[in-house]
């Protein structure tokens, strides 16, 4: 524990040293700005406070003789000139009027004002220096504030108000969040490909002796969450060269030409630090195909892409800069970007295998207090199709579940519940089913379990539950024995039989069907149509591909697509899909009819216990009762009478699904 605290303390000390320096500079700039505004306003108001009623010297003398002046102030403007400001009596109305007059101060003028009882006040003359300071200092302060706010910021950060075309690539330091290949698992082939790039940068002569050249670029493609960005971080941690990172969206701006300018500036930084690695995350934001199928004219994204193409392999291309990019949409990238010489290597980052998932779980559970009874291999078996991000979320959810119940260690039950929560959603204990709906759901799920158990090609049953979870009222879960990359026709037909088990059980027991099998029928129809149209598993139509609608349509690629087969073939497709689904339903109905007593027994136990695992289901299928556990109390009560209930009308929620 002491070793884990030291790096945390060192990390917390660094911000304390680096944090305070920017604050005094910012506070000083704000103080200068406030003082400048105050002095400017004071200067303007002091100038505007002077009287605007200008009179001539002769008028002033006449007003003194006529006793219209009550008091005067003799001032100097700093240049040797004298002037008088004061108040004159308004003869037409009660009150006074301020005036200003330039004078030549003489003894006669002072004697005249004294004779007419004028109150005289003199001000000291202003020096030239004070006048200059009073007029220039506000402008000096304003320019000083502009310097601190804009010019200093542009020099320090390089991203000031006038640096739109500067690259936003960040240079990662060697000791900042360092990640190595030891912390990456489940993608061994991708690690080998990138490790060669790292070795080339460390010792290029070993490869150049045989005439090899440094690769220009490596494109990492794969499903979201498979670890593409993590691999790039590992390359940054392994390589002893500068590593720049930037997102594809940082190139695109609303100003024309900014993206291309940033690309050029990014490569200029790379040339100064060569050899180096530049990582572009989500490159599909800037590297999309230039043919969009509609419109025309100039596009900012195309200009940015052209600049990227030229910098990667053009007339002025220099060695020593390796581009590593990541995307989960390689199908939309421009072909010119994918050719050899730009992205020499295209590394596919697949979903992890069974062994890879176990290794990933070990990595993410390093800082989690796992119980000695936890079997990570079992958890890996139960998570086919999970990515690295999904597995990290699974371990985190298990830790949260264990802490919520106040446990000291994470148990296997927490891992199983976390897996079920990630795949199907959290248990909805508050969604209470009445007796009829609970009975209907129990028979529905028991139908799936019986059909799956008596179909050898199906995966082994893991758990059967009638507790609402997510949008499903119940679930029959399977646990694959191994990863499968191909599916045989018999296995697909077995899956259809298991999917039809719920609907067949409803019709067999209640004589009626509900909307609870909505999701089962939807999935079965998709599988059957894929068997006919994509996999060529129809004897009537033969081995031919009749089109797939599961792929996303990219703009300009497939908008005007039409069917490539006749209406007669379309009718044959519908007939074949209907035949496959009908045969699967009939097979499932036959299995349930032959094992009706097991179906009823399993359903009654589901109503009583709500959850049954594989050992319990297997014992029920073989002996007709639950297994005897010595550590728990034996079941002394006889099993309830297994009579076939009368048909009841059920109205299940149309949106509720029952996944198998």
UniProtKB/TrEMBL annotation:
Gene3D superfamilies: 1.10.8.60, 3.30.720.210, P-loop containing nucleotide triphosphate hydrolases, Peptidase M41. Zn(2+) binds at residues 444, 448, 520. Binds 1 zinc ion per subunit. ATP binds at residues 222-229. This is ATP-dependent zinc metalloprotease FtsH. Residues 214-353 form the AAA+ ATPase domain. Residues 633-646 have a biased composition (Low complexity). The keyword Membrane applies. Signal peptide: none annotated. Belongs to the AAA ATPase family. In the C-terminal section; belongs to the peptidase M41 family. InterPro entries: AAA+_ATPase, AAA_lid_3, ATPase_AAA_core, ATPase_AAA_CS, FtsH, P-loop_NTPase, Pept_M41_FtsH_extracell, Peptidase_M41.
């Amino acid at each position: 524990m002491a070793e884990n605290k030291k790096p945390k303390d060192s990390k917390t000390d660094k911000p304390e040293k680096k944090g305070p320096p920017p604050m005094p500079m910012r506070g000083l700039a704000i103080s200068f700005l406030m003082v400048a505004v105050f002095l400017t306003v004071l200067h303007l108001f002091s100038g505007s406070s002077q009287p605007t009623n200008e009179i001539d010297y002769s008028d002033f003398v006449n007003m003194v003789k006529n006793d219209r002046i009550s008091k005067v102030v003799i001032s100097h403007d700093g240049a040797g000139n004298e002037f008088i400001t004061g108040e004159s009596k308004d003869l037409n109305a009660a009150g006074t009027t301020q005036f200003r007059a330039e004078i030549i101060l003489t003894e006669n003028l002072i004697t005249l004002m004294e004779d007419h009882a004028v109150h005289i006040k003199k001000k000291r003359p202003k020096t030239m220096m004070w006048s200059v300071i009073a007029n220039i200092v506000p402008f000096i302060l304003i320019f000083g504030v502009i310097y601190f706010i804009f010019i200093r910021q542009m020099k320090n950060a390089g991203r000031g108000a006038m640096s739109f075309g500067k690259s936003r690539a960040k240079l990662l330091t060697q000791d900042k969040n360092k990640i190595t290949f030891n912390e990456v698992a489940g993608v061994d082939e991708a690690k080998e490909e990138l490790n060669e790039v790292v070795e080339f940068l460390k010792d290029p002569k070993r490869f150049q002796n045989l005439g090899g050249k440094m690769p220009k670029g490596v494109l990492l493609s794969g499903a979201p969450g498979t670890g593409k960005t993590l691999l790039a971080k590992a390359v940054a941690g392994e390589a002893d060269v500068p590593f720049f990172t930037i997102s594809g969206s940082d190139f695109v701006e609303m100003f024309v030409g900014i993206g291309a300018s940033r690309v050029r500036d990014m490569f200029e930084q790379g040339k100064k630090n060569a050899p180096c690695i530049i990582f572009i995350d989500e490159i599909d934001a800037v590297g999309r195909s230039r043919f969009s199928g509609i419109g025309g004219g100039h596009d900012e994204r195309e200009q940015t892409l052209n600049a990227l193409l030229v910098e990667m392999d053009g007339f002025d291309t220099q060695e020593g800069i390796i581009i590593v990019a990541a995307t989960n949409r390689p199908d939309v990238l421009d072909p010119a970007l994918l050719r050899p010489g730009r992205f020499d290597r295209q590394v596919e980052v697949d979903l992890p295998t069974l062994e890879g998932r176990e290794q990933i779980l070990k990595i993410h559970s390093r800082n989690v207090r796992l119980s000695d009874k936890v079997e990570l291999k079992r958890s890996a078996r139960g998570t086919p199709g999970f990515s690295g991000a999904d597995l990290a979320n699974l371990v985190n959810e298990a830790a949260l579940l264990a802490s919520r119940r106040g446990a000291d260690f994470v148990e296997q039950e927490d891992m199983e519940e976390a897996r079920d929560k990630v795949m199907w959603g959290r248990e909805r204990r508050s969604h209470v089913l009445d007796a009829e709906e609970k009975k209907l759901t129990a028979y529905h799920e028991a139908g799936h379990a019986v059909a799956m158990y008596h179909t050898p090609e199906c995966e082994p049953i893991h758990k059967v539950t009638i507790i609402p979870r997510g949008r499903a009222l119940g679930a029959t879960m399977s646990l694959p024995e191994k990863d499968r990359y191909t599916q045989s026709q018999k296995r697909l037909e077995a899956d259809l039989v298991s999917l039809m088990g719920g609907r067949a059980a409803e019709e067999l027991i209640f004589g009626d069907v509900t909307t609870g099998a909505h999701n089962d029928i939807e999935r079965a129809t998709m599988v059957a149509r894929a068997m006919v149209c994509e996999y060529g598993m129809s004897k009537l139509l033969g081995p031919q591909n009749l089109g797939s609608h599961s792929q996303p349509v990219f703009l300009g690629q497939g908008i005007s697509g039409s069917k490539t087969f006749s209406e007669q073939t379309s009718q044959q497709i519908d007939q074949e899909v209907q035949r496959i689904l009908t045969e699967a339903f009939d097979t499932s109905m036959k299995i349930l009819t032959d094992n009706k007593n097991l179906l009823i027994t399993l359903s009654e136990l589901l109503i009583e216990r709500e959850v049954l695992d594989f050992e319990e289901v297997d014992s029920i299928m073989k002996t007709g009762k639950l297994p005897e556990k010595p550590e728990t109390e034996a079941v002394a009560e006889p099993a309830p009478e297994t009579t076939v209930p009368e048909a009841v009308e059920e109205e299940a929620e149309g949106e509720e699904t029952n996944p198998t």
